[in-house]
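DM from R.C. (forwarded with permission)

"hey, sorry to bug you on a friday — could you get me a structure for this? deadline for the figure draft is monday and I only need the backbone to look sensible"
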Amino acid sequence: MIYLPLTLTERLGYFKDAGLNVEITDFGSGTKSLQALIGGNVDATAGSFDHTIQMQAKGQPIVAVVETGRYPGIVLGLVTSKKLAYHGPKDLKGLKIGVTAPGSQTNFMVNYILTKNGMKPEDVSFIGVGGPTTAVAAVKKGEIDALSHADPAITQVELSGELTSIFDTRTTAGTQAVFGGEYPSSVMYVSPAFAEQNPNTVQAIVTATVRTLSWIAKSTPEEIAKAMPPEYQGKDPALYVEIVNKSKSMYPADGRINKAGAENAYQVLSAFDKAVAAAKIDISATYTDRFVDKALAAH
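My reply, with the result:
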């Protein structure tokens, strides 16, 4: 669901309208997508805003050019069959927690919750459970005690009663409860050199994406679900509509990156990422709104 705007931009034909011939490659994880950009194998990446901060700390700057997710959309829940007594974050100690992959945003969120509550990431065992299908299977088989993941996996196990949510960042209130403020999640990012050398291409990517965000804001969950590839709906179209409905507030209406949210992301990462904490980060260099501003002026 985090990358729904990217798929929709392609499906609605907005990339073509902007004069682009786009090939989307799924690398299976945000970390691999980031590596593909750094290695020069792709021109732009739909990924986590966190990466723009972390790569600046490593001296390999990348810049976010449009925001596609204003909340992380990650939920941490307890596996119901384990009948765990939970009164607060301290009760997470010693649990086996499923995340998409070590080092992913689903991992970061739990790290932050632990750190904020006087614990360390080492106080739990993180288990990479991969994408939605394997994550749901891990819950059903009882291989994990808790799951930190995003939709479609979360709504599926919530509705079946197999997972009880304790932190939910698909909403404003839930994001503030975890991160203490706004937190930009998914963005489109490029290298600063690519943006300088190919401003028209970057503008076309952003213009097409902003058009999609505007379309999402005006559309019903049913209309959004219908526009997505049929295989996304699987055998249960009603479930998919419900997943879209729960995620809809995650998508910003205009694609602008909120300055306070960017600063908050830096504070959060500094709490447990030693490289970020040790570096002098210029948050204003992690994103630019100039392409979004131009897209909105033309819209």
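R.C.: lifesaver. The longest helix spans residues 199-218.
me: no worries. The chain has two domains: 4-71+183-298, 74-168.
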